[in-house]
């Protein structure tokens, strides 16, 4: 397989050229994840990392970047796809060019693991199941719940819905009040939640926000409606960014499931193994924690990196 | 010569786009009230502030109303400002950063607001200078500043979603005075200020003039360039104000999402309000109603529980229905004159 | 008594204006082609700069991929050129691609033969284009709003069809359309390639250029862009043409959906978000005036390639900090239009 | 001249069109016979253009019927009128500036081969059509925007010639043409008439009407006042029928010639030295004194408009200086010129004059407001005074200040524009074809206004294609040819339009000789 002298970038001497097809600015989680990778693959560590974020989260621009890395002949490609599907042709071409590809975070669909070296990611399904499991235990009598989603059709949204529903959907005590997109945004989540509370005469016990930002928006809407978050309405979020843990510590959020972004080291090891011709597992799951109490949040906060 | 008949008066009324915006708002509110008769109710919550759907609608409409006003002026000159969403996020980013660094006092709130306005004014000025003096097309100019502006916001917050706390600020964004949300009152105040600025001076007429016919306006001795710069600066500043209050409501700036695609909503509001995108005659009140309509529509979608997937289609249906009602074809039914001249839509 | 003051510089032969006209004729430069020409030159400069700065740009694989990956985009830009040349705008194309491709793939999945599915996909594009056209032409809705509504509608319908990615069966003959053909098998992946999609794009460009330059319909498009009222008074078939341009743009969006779907093998409701703006930017970069009347299809092709190349160059550079990406994209776009402006100014 | 009775090719009966607030046509009849030139007469705003637009499918009429070649027809749009063989040149030039001259001539009637439009033949045909109007040397591949308005009007006319129509409608085609061009146009019209084309003609020049018409229809206030063979009605009867006033009063003003040359300051108010612009004006000197009327005379495209534009800062100078009151000034823009109390009324009222969607009032106050800056809005009462003055002075009809100016008739728009410029209290007034499309009565008003301005010490530059008018009003006359001033004449009894034409011909001869 491809050695370190793949003819890439030219002037960088014996640095290993890594093409990073990234997502770019999306939210705090992505920020932490990509910064972590950029900080890991440094020149000191022997790498020349080419960072190529998508424009407007558009898959087309990622494919363009990917193709360009293949044409240029980088040594290895890290692919952090915005969308899981539609990558076959590109990956096949990378294979033909003997450039190993490592998937970061998002997997591909259909999951043909012969097309890439490995996938390193936390598991969305597992993380969202953990939210649902917590809910089941927190509301033994069941609850009226509402889901704040990301944009309809994005695969994270689909996966987080699927994981969540696989548990909650089984439990008849939970009554869905519906789901609405708030486009990952605090403001929109606040606005949506306000209306949801109005429409249901404040009879909402549980909100599942698919990211921290929306969860924080929900907190504000609940407060604005004169209710107490954490008491009248319990809110659970996914990601585990610092503001969310602070809110958890303050009792505003009730549950935060981490979706661990810090796996640059793991990626580095995988890249080294692959370039040396070694074998790696086709899926390296990054362990993620959950925080279900203010105390847990307090403990984690001091060395929270994102 | 002719006495105005009821029919003519009806026709004139029907040809005021503003009226149809109002009708649409009423219809949407009625639909919501059908679902829940208490929809329009406003209550005094324990916390001592008023809550209720109408209040929420007004608060949601406020930032949109502000940018729609600036957009109206820009559109009237025959231009377009795609960068207002970015002006919002810049305004939000600057104010949140300043507040975070500040001491939570009213003074630091003022400083944050001032700084946000200053920077967004500069952004607007850049647009204006490029359009007026370099002669770039407004669409492409503001597309560039839209892209670069959001980037700038990210640079300002170093990519973080900065939060801050400042009571004065929070009150402005969330508080109510006599039942009405403060933000909305501010938006109304801005509406009044802009209307006064534009209509008690000659600004409005001159803007319309350059929008209708730049060449003839130049020959009439109008200094088109400084007017253009002024209008884009106004739009930028209003974008900044809107951004400050939009982020103020949650006290967090979301650099990727604040103001995203809001320029489209603003343009929609402007057009619903009866200002043609080809420039010329404009109606600020119309734009305000347009903004209210869009806020109502957004709220209705959630209230009725329309699924995320179907939301855009639902909006489309409402917009199309409204456009058809405003269309000349319907209007012709109501008024007697049937002109088959190549016509331009003109607003009163 | 008549006093006559003879002027010293009187009556030069031949007169200035005739000389100036002759000079222009000798040079054979039509000022109307300058912006497009400038775009072409700058594209060439970008290619050379890329090669010098990063290497591996002027090579078979990079260039063929530039064409293949942007084929659908070229088609889209060509469709928009018709609309923009006539002074309209079509914001719905991105969303139309989404609904058309999701529907198409689902039809293939349901067992429809490929040609039929393709026809359906194009038909969906045509239907949306027709709807926009009718709104604009018959009901006098402003193009921006009519097509914005269609954008919402198309996006909504796409989401209602499916919010999960739809995949073409592995054995579907649809995929063949997207398979790259290796014309010259170079070392490693440095091949000269083409694809059916690229061929479609080339055909579309050629046909569009012929239609615009050599048919009455095409000239009517330009005439409407120059002055709609004049075109109408000259007895040109304005209503029909205005309808037709939206139909063309919608249809070509359908075609683009076919090309894109075949290449990707999957379809999704969120495909094509924001593509309308990029396509408009491509058209404008290619030298077409957004107000209509001036521009060429070739320009739109160049514009699409410029934007594609920009992505490649940013990727090649690889050192762009995340918060700077949009600034840099905006910056490059800005430098581009400024350069173009400078070239055009100088030559005029 | 006895005409054998032929069935009319076009017959309009009882046409009524009402716009909001105005009944533009009230039961009007019109009969057009094949092989005749039929003139539509009437004051500004009488409804001539409206009648024409009803005939060509631009407006739908509320009452009445239209019969073409014996068949009642319903036109929905100009395209169907053209299909019915009716070809029209509207009052305002309607061409596309973004296209080439040739293409404008041939739009909608391009010659085609199997490969689409045959561009070579298109330009050849266009050239041929233009040739008939004396524009054979025009490069049809040039952009239309390079042409002066008058030439654009000829281009529009050539469109109608190419169309090979049965009915040709010309709404004030001669309003900005010089005598030569008018003669050429008339030759073409006669030729078409002899080939059986029915021509509907509108003009405010009585001489032209009597020269070319076979019959005429008179409109007044949107009502049909009668249809006459040309030899049935004499001028004064015609005028009183149109205006409802005694024709003698008009003649009195119209024939009044400025008796003695006015006393003017020795020091010129404006002095231009060597001003030039590439492709427009060769280096030229010019002096303008307070209280004088300086006429610009010349043929079409001789550079009158371009020289005037330089003095107004509408175009930038390439060379030369301009002094006002002995001090050099930089007239870099119309706004700057306006600040120096120079105003310019363009010949192209549609594109460079009116702001069509603004009201009459707004159009009148616009320049005054522009001069004052946006901050100091003119008080509503003062606006009222300004607009009422204008309406009264030039008899603008309908006298509704809040009417959209775009809905006024062409002549009335022109009057409003003059009102705009005079409202700014100017020191130098440049009038480019100010009487374009103005009826006999109003023309006298405008001429009187020019003289009155001069007598108040205002310097007036007066440009008109009607040489008689220039000679009648001017104290001195600058003669231009081929973008250069060839002579400056002191006006006197021995200066007539003939002597000026001779001047220009002389220069031609010299040129030939050289
Ligand atoms: N589109 C319109 N809307 C409203 N009123 C109109 C419109 N067009 C014309 N009018 C009115 O109809 C009347 C007749 O106008 P028209 O243009 O036919 O006059 P005209 O005889 O051609 O005059 P002129 O000699 O000045 O060109 C005028 O009072 C004018 O104001
Ligand atoms: N007969 C012609 N042949 C070629 N070009 C012409 C002709 N007449 C006018 N032009 C063009 O029109 C342009 C405008 O000329 P300008 O406006 O100064 O003319 P003018 O003296 O005002 O006459 P008018 O306005 O009556 O046409 C000139 O630059 C010239 O190129
Ligand atoms: Mg007329
Ligand atoms: Mg002239």
From TrEMBL, chain B:
Keyword Transmembrane helix: yes
Subcellular location: Cell membrane
Keywords: Cell membrane, Membrane, Transmembrane, Transmembrane helix
Matches recorded under CDD domains: TM_PBP1_transp_AraH_like (cd06579)
Membrane-spanning residues: 12-31, 64-90, 111-136, 182-207, 227-246, 258-277, 284-306, 312-330
UniProt main location, coarse: membrane
InterPro entries to which the protein is assigned, alphabetical: ABC_transp_permease
Any Pfam family hit: BPD_transp_2
Domain of life: Bacteria
Membrane topology note: Multi-pass membrane protein
Matches recorded under PANTHER family: ABC TRANSPORTER PERMEASE PROTEIN YPHD-RELATED-RELATED, GALACTOFURANOSE TRANSPORTER PERMEASE PROTEIN YTFT
Name recorded for this polypeptide: ABC transporter permease
Provenance organism: Agrococcus versicolor
Lineage: Bacteria, Bacillati, Actinomycetota, Actinomycetes, Micrococcales
TrEMBL record, chain C:
InterPro entries found in the cross-reference section: ABC_transp_permease (IPR001851)
Membrane in keyword set: yes
Transmembrane segments: 33-54, 66-86, 93-112, 118-136, 143-161, 192-212, 243-261, 273-290, 297-315, 327-344
UniProt keyword Lipid biosynthesis present: no
Membrane-related topology note: Multi-pass membrane protein
Keywords recorded for this protein, A-Z: Cell membrane, Membrane, Transmembrane, Transmembrane helix
UniProt subcellular location: Cell membrane
Record Pfam families: BPD_transp_2 (PF02653)
PANTHER family linked: ABC TRANSPORTER PERMEASE PROTEIN YPHD-RELATED-RELATED, INNER MEMBRANE ABC TRANSPORTER PERMEASE PROTEIN YJFF
Protein name: Sugar ABC transporter permease
Organism: Agrococcus versicolor
Automatic annotation (TrEMBL), chain D:
Record CDD domains: ABC_Carb_Monos_I, ABC_Carb_Monos_II
SMART domains assigned to the protein according to its UniProt record, in alphabetical order: AAA (SM00382)
Domain of life, source organism: Bacteria
Domain ABC transporter stretches: 10-246, 264-507
Alphabetized Gene3D superfamilies for the sequence: P-loop containing nucleotide triphosphate hydrolases
GO molecular function: ATP binding
Keywords, comma-separated and alphabetical: ATP-binding, Nucleotide-binding, Repeat, Transport
Keyword Nucleotide-binding on entry: yes
Protein name: Sugar ABC transporter ATP-binding protein
């Amino acid at each position: 397989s491809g050695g370190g002298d793949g003819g890439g970038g030219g002037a960088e001497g014996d640095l290993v050229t890594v093409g990073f097809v990234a997502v770019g600015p999306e939210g705090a989680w992505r920020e932490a994840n990509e910064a972590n990778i950029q900080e890991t693959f440094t020149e000191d560590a022997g790498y020349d990392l080419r960072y190529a974020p998508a424009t407007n989260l558009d898959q087309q621009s990622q494919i363009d970047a990917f193709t360009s890395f293949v044409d240029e002949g980088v040594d290895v490609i890290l692919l952090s796809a915005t969308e899981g599907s539609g990558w076959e042709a590109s990956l096949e071409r990378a294979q033909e060019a003997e450039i190993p590809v490592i998937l970061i975070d998002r997997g591909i669909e259909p999951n043909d693991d012969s097309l890439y070296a490995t996938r390193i990611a936390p598991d969305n399904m597992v993380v969202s199941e953990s939210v649902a499991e917590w809910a089941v235990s927190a509301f033994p009598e069941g609850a009226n719940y509402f889901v704040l989603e990301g944009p309809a059709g994005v695969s994270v949204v689909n996966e987080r819905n699927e994981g969540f529903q696989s548990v909650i959907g089984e439990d008849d005590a939970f009554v869905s009040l519906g789901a609405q997109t708030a486009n990952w945004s605090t403001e929109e989540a606040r606005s949506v939640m306000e209306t949801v509370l109005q429409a249901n005469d404040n009879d909402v016990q549980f909100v599942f926000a698919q990211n921290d930002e929306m969860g924080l928006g929900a907190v504000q809407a609940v407060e604005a409606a004169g209710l107490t978050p954490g008491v009248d309405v319990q809110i659970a979020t996914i990601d585990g960014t610092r503001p969310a843990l602070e809110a958890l510590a303050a009792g505003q959020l009730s549950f935060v499931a981490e979706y661990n972004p810090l796996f640059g080291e793991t990626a580095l090891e995988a890249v080294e193994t692959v370039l040396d011709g070694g074998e790696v597992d086709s899926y390296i799951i990054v362990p993620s924690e959950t925080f279900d109490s203010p105390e847990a949040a307090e403990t984690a906060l001091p060395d929270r990196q994102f | 010569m002719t006495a105005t008949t009821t029919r003519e008066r009806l026709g004139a009324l029907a040809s005021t786009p503003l009226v149809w915006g109002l009708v649409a708002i009423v219809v949407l509110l009625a639909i919501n009230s059908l679902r829940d008769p208490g929809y329009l109710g406003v209550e005094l919550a324990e916390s001592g502030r008023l809550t209720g759907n109408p209040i929420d609608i007004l608060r949601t409409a406020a930032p949109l109303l502000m940018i729609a006003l600036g957009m109206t002026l820009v559109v009237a000159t025959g231009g377009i400002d795609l960068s207002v969403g970015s002006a919002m996020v810049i305004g939000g980013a600057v104010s949140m950063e300043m507040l975070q660094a500040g001491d939570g006092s009213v003074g630091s709130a003022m400083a944050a607001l001032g700084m946000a306005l200053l920077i967004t004014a500069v952004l607007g000025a850049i647009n204006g200078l490029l359009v007026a003096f370099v002669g770039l097309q407004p669409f492409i100019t503001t597309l560039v500043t839209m892209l670069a502006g959001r980037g700038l916001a990210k640079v300002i917050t170093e990519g973080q979603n900065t939060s801050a706390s400042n009571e004065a600020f929070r009150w402005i964004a969330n508080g109510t005075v006599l039942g009405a949300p403060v933000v909305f009152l501010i938006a109304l105040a801005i509406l009044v200020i802009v209307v006064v600025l534009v209509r008690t001076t000659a600004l409005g007429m001159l803007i319309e003039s350059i929008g209708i016919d730049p060449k003839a306006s130049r020959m009439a001795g109008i200094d088109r360039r400084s007017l253009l710069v002024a209008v884009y600066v106004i739009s930028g500043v209003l974008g900044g104000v809107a951004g400050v209050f939009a982020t103020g409501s949650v006290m967090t700036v979301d650099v990727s999402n604040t103001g995203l695609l809001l320029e489209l909503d603003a343009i929609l509001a402007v057009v619903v309000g009866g200002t043609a995108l080809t420039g010329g005659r404009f109606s600020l009140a119309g734009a305000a109603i347009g903004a209210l309509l869009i806020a109502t529509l957004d709220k209705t979608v959630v209230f009725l529980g329309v699924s995320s997937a179907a939301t855009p289609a639902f909006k489309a249906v409402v917009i199309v229905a409204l456009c058809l009602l405003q269309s000349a074809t319907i209007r012709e039914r109501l008024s007697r004159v049937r002109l088959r001249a190549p016509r331009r839509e003109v607003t009163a | 008594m008549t006093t006559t003051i003879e002027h010293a510089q009187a009556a030069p032969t031949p007169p200035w204006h005739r000389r100036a006209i002759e000079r222009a004729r000798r040079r054979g430069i039509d000022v109307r082609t300058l912006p497009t020409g400038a775009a072409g030159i700058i594209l060439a400069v970008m290619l050379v700069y890329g090669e010098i700065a990063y290497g591996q740009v002027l090579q078979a694989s990079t260039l063929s991929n530039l064409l293949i990956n942007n084929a659908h985009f070229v088609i889209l830009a060509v469709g928009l050129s018709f609309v923009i040349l006539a002074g309209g705008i079509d914001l719905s194309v991105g969303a139309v691609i989404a609904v058309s491709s999701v529907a198409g793939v689902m039809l293939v999945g349901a067992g429809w033969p490929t040609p039929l599915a393709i026809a359906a996909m194009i038909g969906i594009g045509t239907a949306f284009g027709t709807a926009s056209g009718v709104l604009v032409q018959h009901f006098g809705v402003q193009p921006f709003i009519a097509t914005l509504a269609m954008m919402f509608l198309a996006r909504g319908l796409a989401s209602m069809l499916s919010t999960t990615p739809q995949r073409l069966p592995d054995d579907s003959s649809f995929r063949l359309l997207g398979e790259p053909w290796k014309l010259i098998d170079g070392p490693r992946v440095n091949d000269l390639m083409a694809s059916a999609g690229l061929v479609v794009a080339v055909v579309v460009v050629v046909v569009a250029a012929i239609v615009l330059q050599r048919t009455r319909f095409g000239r009517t498009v330009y005439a409407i862009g120059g002055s709609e009222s004049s075109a109408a008074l000259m007895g040109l078939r304005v209503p029909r043409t205005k309808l037709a341009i939206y139909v063309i743009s919608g249809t070509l969006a359908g075609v683009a959906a076919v090309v894109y779907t075949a290449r990707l093998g999957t379809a999704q409701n969120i495909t094509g978000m924001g593509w309308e703006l990029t396509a408009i930017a491509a058209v404008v970069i290619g030298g077409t005036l957004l107000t209509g009347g001036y521009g060429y299809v070739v320009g739109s092709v160049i514009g699409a390639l410029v934007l594609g190349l920009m992505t490649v160059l940013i990727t090649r550079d690889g050192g762009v900090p995340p918060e700077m990406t949009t600034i840099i994209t905006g910056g490059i776009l800005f430098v581009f239009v400024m350069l173009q402006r400078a070239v055009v100014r100088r030559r005029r | 001249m006895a005409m054998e009775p032929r069935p009319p090719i076009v017959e309009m009966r009882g046409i009524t069109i009402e716009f909001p607030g105005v009944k533009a046509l009230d039961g009007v009849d019109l009969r057009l016979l094949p092989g005749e030139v039929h003139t539509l007469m009437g004051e500004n705003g009488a409804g001539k253009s409206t009648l024409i637009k009803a005939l060509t499918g631009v407006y739908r009429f509320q009452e009445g019927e239209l019969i073409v070649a014996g068949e009642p027809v319903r036109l929905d749009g100009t395209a169907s009128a053209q299909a019915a063989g009716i070809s029209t040149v509207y009052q305002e030039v309607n061409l596309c500036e973004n296209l080439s001259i040739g293409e404008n001539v041939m739009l909608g009637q391009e010659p085609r081969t199997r490969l689409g439009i045959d561009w070579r033949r298109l330009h050849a045909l266009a050239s041929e059509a233009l040739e008939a109007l004396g524009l054979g040397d025009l490069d049809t591949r040039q952009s239309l925007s390079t042409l002066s308005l008058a030439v654009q009007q000829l281009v529009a006319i050539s469109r109608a010639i190419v169309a090979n129509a049965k009915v040709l409608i010309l709404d004030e085609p001669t309003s900005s043409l010089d005598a030569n061009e008018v003669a050429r146009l008339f030759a073409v019209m006669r030729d078409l008439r002899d080939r059986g084309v029915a021509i509907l003609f509108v003009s405010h020049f009585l001489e032209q009407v009597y020269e070319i018409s076979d019959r005429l229809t008179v409109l007044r206030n949107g009502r049909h006042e009668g249809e006459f063979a040309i030899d049935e009605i004499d001028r004064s009867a015609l005028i009183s029928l149109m205006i409802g006033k005694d024709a003698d009063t008009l003649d009195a003003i119209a024939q009044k010639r400025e008796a003695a040359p006015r006393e003017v300051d020795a020091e010129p108010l404006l002095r231009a030295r060597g001003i030039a612009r590439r492709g427009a004006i060769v280096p030229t000197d010019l002096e303008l004194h307070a209280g004088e009327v300086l006429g610009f005379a010349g043929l079409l495209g001789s550079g009158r408009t371009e020289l005037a534009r330089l003095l107004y800062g509408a175009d930038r100078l390439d060379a030369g200086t301009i002094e006002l009151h002995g001090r050099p000034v930089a007239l870099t823009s119309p706004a700057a010129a306006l600040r120096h109390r120079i105003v310019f009324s363009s010949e192209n009222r549609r594109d460079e004059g009116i702001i069509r969607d603004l009201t009459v009032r707004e159009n009148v106050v616009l320049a005054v407001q522009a001069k004052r800056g946006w901050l100091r809005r003119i008080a509503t009462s003062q606006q009222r005074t300004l607009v009422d003055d204008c309406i009264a002075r030039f008899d603008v009809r309908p006298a509704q200040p809040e009417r959209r100016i775009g809905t006024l008739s062409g002549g009335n728009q022109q009057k409003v524009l003059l009102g705009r410029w005079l409202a700014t209290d100017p020191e130098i007034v440049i009038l480019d074809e100010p009487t374009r499309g103005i009826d006999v009565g109003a023309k006298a008003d405008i001429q009187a206004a020019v003289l009155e301005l001069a007598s108040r010490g205002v310097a007036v530059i007066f440009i008109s294609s009607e040489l008689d008018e220039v000679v009648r009003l001017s104290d001195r006359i600058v003669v231009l040819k081929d973008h250069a001033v060839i002579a400056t004449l002191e006006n006197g009894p021995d200066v007539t339009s003939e002597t000026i034409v001779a001047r220009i011909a002389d220069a031609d001869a010299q040129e030939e000789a050289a």
